[in-house]
Amino acid sequence: MERRGRGAKPSPSPAPQLQPPPRKDRKPSMFEREAYTQILKERLRDSIHDVQYVEPPFDDSIADLGKEWRSALAKLKFANSYRMEPLKKFQAHSVETKVQQILTENLKDVKYDDKVFSRMSLDLADRILSAVKEFGYQRYKFIIKVLFIQKTGQAIHIASRWIWDAAWDSWVAAKHETETHVALALVFALFRE
Fold first, then answer.
1. What does each C-alpha distance from 124 to 111, 167, 169 come to in angstroms?
2. R_g over Cα of the chain
3. If both were cysteines, with which of 8, 75, 101, 175 could 4 make a disulfide (CB 3.0 to 4.6 Å apart)?
4. Which residue in 78, 30, 79 sits closest to 56, CA to CA?
5. ∠ CA 98-117-94 to the nearest 5 degrees?
6. Max Cα–Cα distance, the chain, nearest Å
7. Are 152 and 79 spatial neighbours (Cβ–Cβ below 8 Å)?
8. Where is 187: in which H helix or E strand?
9. What is the rounded CA–CA span in Å between residue 159 and residue 138?
10. Which is nearest to 170 in space by CA: 185, 190, 142, 184?
11. CA-wise closest residue to 149 among 186, 119, 178
12. pLDDT of 12-26, one tens digit each?
């Protein structure tokens, strides 16, 4: 047993051996022909891209680069644009006329029946949604509400609340009225960044 007093040096203990970190394999250069598609796949694995033109890094044609190059290009769909505003702003007046036209065409000779209108409201909402999507507003989310109200001499007030961006979000209301019912279609256009 070893005694230590004041000023005594501690006995040397064996120093722990530090292992060097395991050596990583060299990543292939992007200028190596075979490695270019692999690098593209690694970098773009979880992202969606909209690429209009990709210039190959080689002087050869794309046909010479093989099937891997074509399959890597085929997966590219959307590029991150960091766009904070739409390319085409939602135009309420043109959408309103189209929605009004759809309501008029589908409900001109219809009498109130709650069983028929439950199915018809879903059908009209789908038709309105497909018609609004034809306008080509990109990055807008559309919410369609179709309400059928039987006329029995009552007064009705309808309200909606949304978290709203006044610069880009908008809404449209179209109404079709007959002797027996009132049909109201609401279209909310919400811009998604």
1. 16, 28, 22
2. 33
3. 8
4. 30
5. 10
6. 109
7. no
8. strand 181-191
9. 27
10. 190
11. 178
12. 666 566 666 666 666
3-class SS of residue 173: strand
What is the model's pLDDT at position 144?
Answer: 95
* 146: CB partners within 8 A, 6+ apart: 121, 122, 124, 125, 128, 183, 184, 185, 186
For residue 18, give both structure tokens.
């530090």
The string of pLDDT tens digits covering residues 32-49 is: 666 666 666 666 665 555
Compute the half-sphere exposure of residue 182: CA atoms within 13 Å on the CB side of its CA: 13
Measured CA to CA, the distance from residue 85 to residue 94 in angstroms comes to 20
3-state secondary structure of 61: coil
SS3 per residue for 44-56: CCCCCCCCCCCCC
The pLDDT score that the predictor gives to residue 55 is: 52
Judge contact between 186 and 145, C-beta under 8 A.
Answer: yes
Residue located via tokens 């399959």: 71
Q: What does the angle CA 152 – CA 144 – CA 168 come to, to the nearest 5 degrees?
A: 125
Contact assessment for residue 112 and residue 181, using Cβ atoms and an 8 Å cutoff: yes
